Amino acid sequence: MGKDRLDEPLDLHNYSTWKLRFQLLSAELGYSRALLQAPIAEADVIISDKVKSVMAKNVKNHYLEAIVRAANAKAAWDALAATFASTCNTRKVALRQELSDFKMAN
Prior knowledge:
Layout: H1 15-29, H2 33-36, H3 42-57, H4 64-69, H5 73-101
């Protein structure tokens, strides 16, 4: 893959791994600060825009709108985290329900 691309783009089932790899990629490119804080100075805005661009290259098409709509890279990062946090919690509740309904066979 290219210098600013991960092997596997973000999709439904790989958020936890993708998150770690994207943090490492951002650190390698010198952009990790943009994921942690909103831009203040003009230089921060430029870096934030670059991170959003790199982020857009590393997600499946159905997540692009969340990135484009975000005001900055931190907002995009937080929007993706919120999307997957709700999915993860929903899945946990469903699995707990399945477990409580599960009965052992004779």
